[in-house]
Structure formats: C-alpha cells, structure tokens
Amino acid sequence: MLSTQSNFTDPDAAYRLIVEAHRGLSDEQSAALDAALVLLLANHIGDADVLHAAIELAKRRLSDSQTKGT
Q1: How does pLDDT run across 18-69, given as a tens digit for each residue?
Q2: How far apart are CA 66 and CA 24, in angstroms?
Q3: How far apart are CA 61 and CA 66, in angstroms?
Q4: Rounded to an integer, what distance in angstroms lies between the CA atom of residue 49 and that of residue 36?
Q5: How many Cα atoms occupy the beta-carbon half-sphere of 40 within 13 Å?
Q6: Less Cβ around it within 10 Å: N or C end of the chain?
Q7: Residue 53 exposed, middle or buried by CB count within 10 Å (0-12, 13-18, 19+)
Q8: What is the reported pLDDT for 65?
Q9: Alpha-helix runs per DSSP H in 1-70
Q10: What one-character DSSP code corresponds to residue 24?
C-alpha cells in the first residue's frame, strides 16, 4: 500500500535536502539527479505494486496541476 502521509520527523528539512541537492546543477544534471534518485528509491521500496500506485498518483497530480495552471 502506498503511504501518502509524511514519514519524516521534519518534512521541511527533507524538502530542503532535496532542493539543496539541485543547487548549482544544470537543468540536464538536475533531471539526471532526479532520475537516479527515483530509481534508487524505487529499488529500495522493491514493490512493483507500490511503484505503480506512486506513478499513477504522480501522473494524476501532474495532470491536476497543469489543469489548474491553464
């Protein structure tokens, strides 16, 4: 089952860590970092059903945010 509630004791610190990891990178390097991070975390989860649910939710959120922006 996909957990959508924060599991971090300090979610803001986790967010800052991700943002800081991108500091100074080109757009291409930033995209590569994101891809590598996704693959590492997907492997850590190790559950194709959870990965599928996460992909579907992310796509739905992306679609929703694009709809709101138009």
Answers
A1: 999 999 999 999 999 999 999 999 999 999 999 999 999 999 999 988 888 7
A2: 27
A3: 9
A4: 20
A5: 6
A6: C
A7: middle
A8: 86
A9: 11-22, 27-45, 48-68
A10: T
